[in-house]
Amino acid sequence: MPINHEHQLALLADILSNQQTDCCGSVAECEQIERLITSLRSNEQIDQNILPILEEVHRYSEQGVTASNLDTHIHSHQNQLSQWVDGINNLS
């Protein structure tokens, strides 16, 4: 059974929050982020104001998949991760 967009946004915020807190993550998490965002972009029920955040997170995730050191990539985006999580929580 597919999850609705509220659950997708909560899952996205959880993954990003964990990466921000732990300063580490996996390529699989980045790929999951990309799948969530692809699904959310096609959902007309989401608040359109969240789309810029989703675009930024998608770029971050794409870069994470190909980063030579994912933990360094995550560490260098600590401020953005916090802002994205706050934005997602406020707009969802």
From TrEMBL:
Pfam family, one: YtzH
Superkingdom: Bacteria
Cited InterPro entries: YtzH (IPR025547)
Protein name: YtzH-like family protein
Species of the source: Niallia hominis
Lineage of source species: Bacteria, Bacillati, Bacillota, Bacilli, Bacillales
